[in-house]
Amino acid sequence: MRDIWLSLPSGAQDALILALFLVPALAIGVALLRGVAPFPLVSAILWRFRWANTMFVALIAISVGMGIGLVAQERGLRAGTAQAADKFDLVVTAPGSELTMLFATVFLQPQDVPLLGGAAFERVASHENVEIAAPLAFGDSYRSAPVVGTIESFARHLSDNRIEGRMWRSSGEAIAGALSELEIGAVFTPAHGHGSALEEGAHAGTEIEVVGRMAPTGTPWDRSILVPVETVWETHGLANGHAPSDAGRIGPPFDPDHFPGTPAIVVRADELWANYALRSEFTRDGETMAFFPGTVLSNLYIVMGDVRQAMSIMALVTQGLVAASVLLGLFILSRLFRRQIALLRALGASSRFVLAVMWSYGTALLATGATLGLGVGYAATAILSRIVTERTDIVVSASLGWSEFHLVAGFLSVTTILSLLPVLAQRRQSVVGGLRA
Amino acid sequence: MSRAALLALLLAATPALADDGHGHAETGEDHVHDDHAHEEDHDDHAEGGSVSHVTEAHGLRAVHAWTRATTGDAALVFLAVENPSEDRVVLTGASSDLADDAEIVGFSLGDGTGSYAPLAEMPLPPGGSLRFAPQELAIRLTGLRAELGEGGYIEVTLATDRGPIPMDVEVGAADATGHSHAGHAH
Amino acid sequence: MTLDLTLKALAVTSDRGRRLLDVDRLEVPAGSLIGVRGPSGAGKSTLLYALAGLLEGLTGSVHWGDTDLAALTPGARAVFRARRIGLIFQDFLLFDELGALGNASLAAQFRPRKDRTDIVARAASHLSRLGVPVDRRTVATFSGGERQRVAIARALANDAGILLADEPTASLHREAADQLIEDLVALAREGGKTMVAVSHDGALLARMDRVLTVEDGRLVSDARAEAA
């Protein structure tokens, strides 16, 4: 049995779980509605209490939507940030906080970070298992867009080699990210620093021409402007990484003696296993630190998951309260409907039929609310995702996954079973008493 | 500034993550084992026998192997392996009497869900070390035949091209993030 | 098909133990039209509900043909009502959100599928016979007379042999009441139904075959109606 289950594709498993969640509701429906057709009466009740019903449905939709939105938003954030880190297999920096370095490199958040020297870079770049060792020299900006010095192979790796125009051929040329305001052919002068620490004019005289544009990556790098790392060094009046005899060179190899330093090195290994070996190898006390952005993010997700868990519990409590108030409402409405119920019994309707009417009514409210809740949750996620994307340039997309559908199905099944209770509670009431009410 | 809103939120929520003892770089924490003679086996005398936090065999050291308590049928084992010898060694896998299967697996984040994929071998250069850590590298046991209870030990054997290295793996809490002696410099 | 009614040693007691109704013996041949009168609270309605099998905890027997309602479970009595009895109430008890046909054919919602078409067809033909327009309007907009006609069509839609009416004209003005009496009596006679109608309305009682008088929970008179 277990083997059969495990052999199923995950989509089929999810679909089966969903079906399983809906079985109780469907079973009750079939048992109650077999051989009766109470829909004219159900729609009559829905219409009679239309304002109360609308309120109920809205409450259910909002509470369900909150739960859904939370789950979907967390998944969207995970997927978006993971996607942003996808190109950064392994990052080598000076020892410090991995989180700080993650934000500085993957998410291009300005941070004050120490530099790695030529020897350290050389050790990484010359390692037999290292395919790309790209220095990332950040710190400059142009109109709030980060200007990052690196090497050609990283620019190609980052954009999956989708570059419009051409690659830089010399210092003083740049490749702009997809969302950059700079078009091909534009010339700009970078500023030193970012935001409030900005020093306009520090690099006066430096002119950089945009010669190419990268395709969108859905990451903060879309806003950035990539330049040869030599350009950054030269702009700051430093050596340009190459011996004077080789001064016109762009890109590796760099001469350790003329290497001014880089805050981070993005490493791509030639083999999957080598990443893990390099991680251990480049982690050296007091010299370098190597980390997997994926691991740091994953640890963040665990915390994010805990926060989500806590908020999910609040959302669940809200849903529970809403469900309880709806059930209370049903109870009150079935009291209001007491005379009509007694009439049905007097005319010879079975108590199962009465139960079927009230259950169908309650379930119509719950199902409508839950379904709208999916929409509310999706809309909330879409809006939040857009805001996050606008503020961080990390493309967070809204989507509903199986777990959200499971959540809704579970909510529906539980509440639809509970919705039998108010009617069952009044089942033993005398018909004559009801008729005279 | 507003660009950082989300990230700042995450950052604020996770002060501990920034320096949660990755590698053996942070050894400053105080604990009661400071005066252990680390060159010798450093044992916790559990009932019925001794277990070791350090195994040396074939010129290799396996240190601080640990896993998490679980009632499921899979577990991840983490440790540090050091190769103080002059030669390269290759870790080729693992085995345990408690599990149907054991293999070395590497973590990748993928679309945000994260998963471990098998790695056939892990070479270790002379003088090198390798850290098996959560969300990075692990030995995955599948088909566990017993529940792993917190505070217990299980035996797992690391396979290398020089021969097997038997290890006592400490079972930590179900949500443990490191060995009980994490940060303890052996 | 209609049925004889036989009551024997029927006694109904309230929850508090007060004797509400006490009938030693009553026989009504099939097809009779019976009026029941008496002061308010005398037990007329209790008698009617007993005949409909709507009361719990009564002693004695209420035989419609071979069926003793007093010996049946509530569920079985409901089935009997659904098939054999049509009920008409003083204040109509219609579903305001449904139309004339929806109300008249209400039983189609809970009766077995095979009976539904017949129920709807009979409801429609009775409505048309009673002059109630079958359109998209709900009965909320109907006059009292129209509403009670819908109720009559509903009582007849299951082709029951027994009609039980509780003050059917009390909520109507005189003219509407007279019209309704004509229709009700004509329909009962034509269908050969056994009808028991509780009423204060002399015009209705005058059209009955017999009029029972209930006072203080007892049958005090069982008179052939004088010709009006």
TrEMBL record, chain A:
InterPro entries found in the cross-reference section: ABC-4/HrtB_transporter, ABC3_permease_C
Domain of life where this protein originates: Bacteria
Membrane topology: Multi-pass membrane protein
GO cellular component: plasma membrane
Domain ABC3 transporter permease C-terminal residues, every copy: 316-430
Subcellular location: Cell membrane
Transmembrane segments: 51-72, 310-333, 353-385, 405-425
Name this protein carries in UniProt: Putative ABC transport system permease protein
Species the sequence originates in: Roseivivax sediminis
TrEMBL record, chain B:
InterPro entries given in the database record: LpqE-like (IPR007410), Lxx211020-like (IPR058248), PCuAC_sf (IPR036182)
Basic and acidic residues bias (residue ranges): 20-47
Domain of life of the organism encoding this protein: Bacteria
The keyword Transmembrane is annotated on this UniProt entry: no
Family matches, as Gene3D superfamilies: PCu(A)C copper chaperone
SUPFAM superfamilies from the UniProt entry: DR1885-like metal-binding protein (SSF110087)
Residue ranges of the region described as Disordered: 20-50
Keywords annotated in UniProt: Signal
Signal peptide (from-to): 1-18
Short name of any one Pfam family annotated for the protein: PCuAC
The keyword Methyltransferase belongs to this UniProt entry's keyword annotation: no
Protein name according to UniProt: Copper(I)-binding protein
Organism: Roseivivax sediminis
From TrEMBL, chain C:
Name the UniProt record assigns to this protein: Putative ABC transport system ATP-binding protein
Top-level division of the source organism's lineage: Bacteria
UniProt keyword annotation of rRNA-binding present: no
Record's keyword annotation contains Nucleotide-binding: yes
Domain (ABC transporter): residue spans on this chain: 5-228
Keywords in alphabetical order: ATP-binding, Nucleotide-binding
GO MF entries: ATP binding; ATP hydrolysis activity; transmembrane transporter activity
Entry-linked PANTHER family: IMPORT ATP-BINDING PROTEIN (PTHR24220), LIPOPROTEIN-RELEASING SYSTEM ATP-BINDING PROTEIN LOLD (PTHR24220:SF689)
Database matches in InterPro entries: AAA+_ATPase, ABC_transporter-like_ATP-bd, ABC_transporter-like_CS, ABC_transpr_LolD-like, P-loop_NTPase
